[in-house]
Amino acid sequence: MGYVAVKGGREAIDNSLNFLEFLRNDGSLASISIEQIKKELHFLVDRVMSEGSLYSPDLAAIAIKQAAGDTLEASFILRAYRSTLPRIGYSLPVITKEIRLIRRISSAFKDIPGGQFLGPSTDYSLRLINFELVNEDQNEVKKRYKDFLGNISLSQDLPDDFPKLIEILRGEGFVVSKDVVKKDKEIFDITKESLSFPAQRSATLQAMARGETGSMLLLAYSNVRGYGVSHPTIGELRVGYIKLKIKHPFKEKEITFGEILITEAELLSKITKVEGEPKFQVGYGICFGHNETKAISMAILDIAMRAENPLYPSEDQEFVLSHIDGIESMGFVNHFKLPHYVTFLSEFDRLKKSIKESVK
Q1: Residues 208, 311 within the same domain
Q2: pLDDT of 3
Q3: Extended beta strands in 112-253, E state
Q4: Is residue 198 reached through a cis peptide bond, with omega within 30 degrees of 0 on the bond before it?
Q5: Is residue 189 located within the same domain as residue 47?
Q6: Judgement on whether residues 63 and 178 belong to the same structural domain of the protein
Q7: What percent of the chain clears pLDDT 90, i.e. is strictly above it?
Q8: Which residues pair with 246 in a beta bridge?
Q9: Can you give the residue range of the structural domain that contains 243?
Q10: 221 class by beta-carbon count within 10 Å (0-12 exposed, 13-18 middle, 19+ buried)
Q11: Higher model confidence: residue 251 or residue 280?
Q12: pLDDT band at residue 277, thresholds of 50, 70 and 90?
């Protein structure tokens, strides 16, 4: 049996790329605009920004279009671009209590200080296909949303910030103190240093913040399903815009340079004894954009990886953090498509030799 390498070289590669571009847009339809992707596929844009580790709706939308909707490929493109950008400074720590909310819920309590805000969500509807989307009439759309916005009335102005439910419970002694969770002396930067284990909590949270949603969902689900001991309740879930601040390089005062959309989840789970008293543990998750599944999964894994005696994959810090990065995972799995002629031929020769010797 002959073993012949693929021929064609540069020309074949160029044609392969041209074929891919032709499948994405052959000119038969109007090209979808970047603004349309940002507006109509905003959940996808948010996910790519989070997994690509770069907050830029415009760039994320371009990456999605370039990747023809392949989420992992789009995230890969975005993070690759991120690696070319200069690092000019660090923003100051944000206080999420000051978030400009569009959604705030708690499944632990019906009535919470400041109130619950359902915000934009599919949680309260059936997942039925809306066939009206096949031929959307823009005039009907404008009329529908004009009526929707016209019926909204605020009985009072929204406050600048909302109390944190977890902090209230902590103050009453129901939740572990912040001092119980070991704090890092310095914040670890996973973009400048490779992860080592055991990893600092700042490194753990960073790795999960840019982790792939599906990978984290799988591990979190395995933990609550029985391959772990966590069965959490959402203390508070927030979606909204948070201001980013830096120190003025000359005046040493704080200045706001923009705001970003984030999702934050704080879970209550796993009653544990602290200095002889039972307390709730808290799991924390936060990510770019509106991605509640990811933030909740992150918070579950945050609790799971603090297990004193890890028994399951979701409780093993090295297992979790080494496998949740979708870009690294995709890169390694997909690299098997590239030429492995030499290594395979070596294995093939060994196999033929082994068969020949076994026949003797």
Answers
A1: yes
A2: 39
A3: 233-247
A4: yes
A5: no
A6: no
A7: 52
A8: 255
A9: 96-121+158-324
A10: middle
A11: 280
A12: confident
- Exposure class string for 300-339: b at 16+ Cβ within 10 A, else e: bbbbbbbbeebebbbbbbebbbebbbbbebbeeeeeeeee
Q: Residues 127-136: what's their mean pLDDT? A: 88
Q: Residue 103 pairs with which residues in a beta bridge?
A: 239
Q: Enumerate residues 6+ apart whose C-beta is below 8 A from 270.
A: 229, 230, 232, 280, 281, 303
Tokens 């049996």 identify what position? 1
In DSSP terms, 233 is beta-bridged to 268
Rounded CA gap, 327 and 121, in Å?
28
Answer whether residue 308 is part of any domain: yes
3-class DSSP state of 41: coil
Q: What is the largest CA-CA distance in the chain?
A: 91
Question: Within 53-137, where are the H helices?
Answer: 57-66, 71-82
Same domain? For 107 and 214 the reply is: yes
Residue tagged 């949303």 (tokens): 145
Residue 1 has pLDDT above 50, yes or no: no
* DSSP assignment string, 298-336: HHHHHHHTT-SS--SGGG-HHHHHTT--HHHHHHHHHGG
